[in-house]
Design brief:
Blueprint (H helix, E strand, L loop, with lengths): L8 E2 L6 E2 L21 E2 L5 H13 L6 H25 L6 H7 L3 H12 L10 H18 L5 H4 L2 H25 L11
Antiparallel strand pairs: 1-2, 1-3
Helix pairs in contact: 1-2, 1-7, 2-4, 2-5, 2-7, 5-7
Bound molecules: zinc ion.
Amino acid sequence: MSSGFALAKFCPPCGHVVDDRNFGKNDPCKTCGRECDRRRFLFEGEEQEFLTMVFECYRSKYSRPACLLLSCSLMELHLRMLILHRWRWLGIKWPSLTTTLKEKWRFKQQVDLFASLTGTSLFKLRLTKRLFSRHAALVSKRDRLAHGLTGAAWLVTKEEVRSSVELAAESFTVFAQLHHRYCSVDAPPLPEA
Ligand SMILES: [Zn+2]
């Protein structure tokens, strides 16, 4: 069930992403026209595993509130991977990215980091608006749940569980488009300081 959401692939030479399911294995790249049968999966890290866990918790009797924890973690993972790809695409010789990401571990800090690499705030894009506001609405509940506050699990409503599952599912299309836009040959350069 979860694999259908994470199918986006990209063409290694140009970095453009295709998430059209009808796109054949041997079709030439829609953007650079290259025949590319080595097209790689975009989400080949743990993203898909998070999604599988979200669906599994959703189907379970007692673990449904955990969908909220997992979906928010998935969003953070997506964002971190996007920054990583963007960083590699720019080939910047800055201090270690790993250190930077460890220092700026909060979601908002990473959104700011992405803005410094692209000149674009993910909070203001049309593409990300729905996804990010859904995420923002769930975050405070997530924090209560993550820190084991009394009664936190009961406070998670059915609607929030549903919203978490939708957040996880929708995140793949949105992040595929962000990779397409900011990590491929015709992506915008590093903004001037
Ligand atoms: Zn291509």
